[in-house]
Amino acid sequence: MSGAVQQQGNMSAGNAPTAAQGDWPGDWPGDGGGNWPPRNPRLYDINPSSGSTAGGNIVVLTGSNLQGTYQVTFGGTPATNVTPNQYGNSVTVTAPPHAAGTVSVVATSPYGSTNPLTYTYIAVPVGPTVSALVPNTGPTTGGTAFAIIGTNLSGASVTFNGVPATGVSVNGAGTVLTGTTPPGAAGLATVVVTTPLGSTTVAGGFTYVAPPPLPVTTGISPASGTAAGGTAFVITGSNLNGASVTFNGVAATGVSVNPAGTAIVGFTPAGAVGLATVVVTTPFGTSTVPGGYTYTAPPLPVTTGITPNTGPTAGGTAFVITGSNLNGASVTFNGVAATGVSVNPAGTAIVGFTPAGAAGNVPVVVTTLGGSATVGGGYTYV
Question: How far is residue 40 CA from its own chain's centroid?
Fold first, then answer.
């Protein structure tokens, strides 16, 4: 009789379960009654019912008889921060990471495990990452082709200190981005890659360097010389180290530059009579010499004599012709070219060997770029 009274008292006190809480199981666990076995925990709802594969979001499970819940698993992986409320009708947890897909969620208390609910893990798109920028230096003028290596680069744009790169494209895998640097101030520039899913700053950035100075020319001396070439010249200016020189596109010879890069010396090539464009070229650019260089007609050759002035008709006699302006000369005996012809640097003597010829006196003609001269007295074959 006393047990019935006790039961009636418990029910009147509101401890009896409702129909929504399941079959009559006796007293709540921990309420001091202790007369009946505890009720099985149940789950009714999960909110939210989906989240990122990275986990970390707060999930609330509602149900009944959840007092003492100490573990909640998502697809077998335990959640963290498991916190049941004091009324036993909810548990709050932090979802663990998990692969994409739908998994079962089960809560466990000292009195058993609940029915499963479903939770869907969703793969969240990841922003760009960058592992390398090649090259990481270039001139302030821009125009340096570069490649950025990374992941998730599809749809990316790139800025260098806030200025967009040009010609940007990304391979199909989203792992290689190419483009061309914009101009920038000398020094370290911040490089930012931006996609629809986020931005990332390239470690180390990009260093702009001032390009080496262009060559500067102020003049050439002398400003004119014979079209035969060979005239020594000096070009003055600055930043001339490593220079080559052309006259109307023809390379000068014997070119040398002083250590300070302020003077070039060399010898003119042969050229057509008139004004020639003189261009100095270094590894860093070109400069046209102001005023250019004027080629003048070579002077006419002058001959004063030939020694010996006789020789056998078989030819092969060594001879010397003296005179002036003889550089570059050729020699004929009665129209037949002499052999082994050579002229001294001063242009005052020609040496060579006579060709074969008929007996008698024949004209000897010296020809240079400046014209022709007939040797006085000719040459007599005997």
Answer: 67
Residue 341 covered by a domain? yes
Residue 19's SS3 state is helix
Closest CA to 352 of 362, 370, 360, 364: 364
In the block, residue with structure tokens 């010397």: 320
Is-cis flag, bond preceding 299, omega within 30? no
Q: What secondary structure does DSSP assign to 110-152, as a single string? A: TTEEPPPEEEEEEPPPP--EEEEEES-EEETT---EEEEEEES
Range of the domain at 290: 216-296
Residue 211 in contact with residue 139, Cβ under 8 Å? yes
Report yes or no: 291 and 282 within 8 Å, Cβ to Cβ. no
Q: Residues 276, 327: one domain? A: no
Provide the whole-model pTM. Answer: 0.45
Which of 138, 12, 124 is CA-nearest to residue 57?
124
The model's pLDDT over 190-231, given as tens digits with 9 standing for 90+, comes to: 999 999 999 999 999 999 999 888 999 999 999 999 888 999
